[in-house]
Amino acid sequence: MLAGLAGEAEPYRRLLNELSGLLRGFYARRCPPGVDAEDLVQETLIAVHTRRATYDVGQPFTAWAYAIARYKLIDALRRGRAHLRAPQEEADALFAPPELRGGAEAAMAARDLERVLADLPERSRALIRDVKITGLSTREAAEKHGMTESAVKVAVHRGLKALGGKYGGSDVGED
Amino acid sequence: MSAKTDDLIQSLSADLPKVAPRAAARRVALGLSLGGAASAVLMLAWLHPRPDLAQAVMTPMFWMKFGYAAATGLILAGVLTRLAKPAARPGVLATVAVAPFAVVALMAVGRFVQTPPEAQHALLMGHSSMLCPWRILAIGAPMLAGAIWAVRGLAPTRLMLAGLVAGGCAGGLGAAIYAIACNETSAPFLAIWYTLGMMALAVTGGLASRLMRWR
């Protein structure tokens, strides 16, 4: 963690890797029914990352990280399972392959999709279209747009999250 | 699913700016300073500093009022910084926070028993006792907002406690600003009405602790 605070990527990546294993164990036993434990693992990793300034040098790292994990668990229980799952899933459903849906429904979904995407900035719209609809790999999209792969992932993730926040309904106004 | 998590870890560790030391404490200080500036403007525009401020700063009573409030506020700011972090305990500092009150309470009792009975009522009530707690509540409110803003950007895991402490901290610092406008001069008044104003903000902070939720 100390290396992470100092900005060293490699030891930090290893730390997050190990931590994700611990978190999987933590949530496997405690995760409320209907909540995807892996979602909680990811949320906790993001929180560990974005809130890493609250880690005190010399404090046991696991105690700190588990306190965040507990908070995230309580947060998930508080919001109820629907709230936790809805945004990402609804956004994902829009991108499901057409054969999984009926013809009329597919047309409607396509129209909705265009309308929804129009809200996003130009670049993330193009990226989401390439990665999620056209089916380019992250690498191909990265080459096409002259970005790094991780930048593409982050942009797509943020775009989907923005859509989820906007159309998930339940999440709006909480933050 | 796990592959997604690996991707996430990859992108998180790709974006890794250095973290400045004591970043959390600095954020709390920033929030309180911004709130404090607003509180000071409110005091200056609404209540105005007491006209005899230049003489008042020569008296021990002024510094007792200011010191009691500011010391309580600053100690609680330290406690708040701890509570803004996961797995935090309030620590001994939380016990220390009652020390200024203990000193003031002792002096208040001493003063009170030495006062003839017919003057005791005035000693307790001063001339602004019905206004004092409310004014402290109003002047401390921007500081509470600043404290909540700071803490919700960190990672508190005991929200109710953090809310109470944020309120107490804003109450102490707000009361210190109010002391510049207030011309009461008795220790018993201070022990009762200032403390009540601070506690009102602490309760407000507790009630507002939901605002400290973070994702």
Can you tell me the residue ranges of chain B where pLDDT is under 50 for at least 5 consecutive residues?
none
Helix content of chain B: over 70%
Largest sheet of chain B: none
- Determine the most extensive contact between two protein chains: A-B, 45 and 33 residues
- Radius of gyration of chain A (CA) equals 18 Å
Explain what you see.
The complex is a heterodimer of chains A (about 180) and B (about 220). Chain A has two domains: about 1-85, Rna Polymerase Sigma Factor, Chain: A; about 95-165, Arc Repressor Mutant, subunit A, CATH 1.10.10. Chain A contains eight helices and no strands. Mean pLDDT of chain A is about 75; it is low at about 170-175. Chain A has about 180 residues and is mainly α. Chain B contains ten helices and no strands. Chain B is elongated and about 80 Å long. The longest helix of chain B is centred in the N-terminal third of the chain and has 25 residues, at about 25-45. Chain B has about 220 residues and is mainly α. The interface of A and B includes residues 49 and 51 of A.
Task: Give the topology, please.
The complex is a heterodimer of chains A (175) and B (215).
Chain A: H1 2-5, H2 9-30, H3 37-50, H4 61-94, H5 103-117, H6 122-134, H7 138-145, H8 149-167
Helix pairs in contact in A: 2-3, 2-4, 3-4, 4-8, 6-8, 7-8
Chain B: H1 2-14, H2 23-47, H3 53-56, H4 60-83, H5 92-96, H6 99-114, H7 117-125, H8 132-152, H9 159-179, H10 187-207
Question: Care to give the gist of this entry?
Answer:
The complex is a heterodimer of chains A (175) and B (215). Chain A has 175 residues and is an all-alpha fold. Chain A contains 8 helices and no strands.
Task: Considering the chains and any ligands shown, give keywords for the structure.
heterodimer; A: mainly alpha; Rna Polymerase Sigma Factor, Chain: A; Arc Repressor Mutant, subunit A; 2 domains; 8 helices; disordered C terminus; B: 215 residues; mainly alpha; 0% strand
